[in-house]
Design a protein that fits this description.
The structure is a single chain. By secondary structure, the protein is mostly helical. Helices cover about 75% and strands about 0% of the residues. The protein has a domain of about 25 residues. The chain is elongated.
Length: about 80
C-alpha cells in the first residue's frame, strides 16, 4: 500500500486518496459492528485488516487508471518486458 501512496504522491494526485480513505472507514465501521460483539479485540483486528484491504483495492484502481491515462496501452509506464 505504501508503494501506491508513493506513486500517487509523485503524480501529484494525493487528493485522490480521499475515496480510498472513505472506503476504508466504511468497511472498518461495518466490520466493527459485525465482529466486535462476538469476537472482541480479535474482531477489531480483523476489521482493521478488512479496512486496509478495501483501501488497497481502491488505491490500486485509482493508480491503475492514472497510469493508463499517462501511458500508451501499458498499465505501468515502465514495463519489465523488453
Amino acid at each position: 500500500m505504501v508503494v501506491l501512496l508513493v506513486i500517487a504522491g509523485r503524480a501529484k494526485v494525493t487528493r485522490r486518496n480521499f475515496p480510498a480513505a472513505l472506503v476504508g472507514l466504511a468497511v472498518n465501521v461495518v466490520l466493527l459492528i459485525l465482529l466486535v460483539p462476538d469476537y472482541g479485540i480479535a474482531g477489531a483486528g480483523v476489521a482493521l485488516c478488512g479496512a486496509y484491504v478495501g483501501m488497497l483495492g481502491v488505491m490500486y484502481l485509482l493508480v491503475r487508471r492514472l497510469s493508463r491515462s499517462r501511458s500508451s496501452g501499458d498499465v505501468w509506464p515502465l514495463s519489465l518486458s523488453s
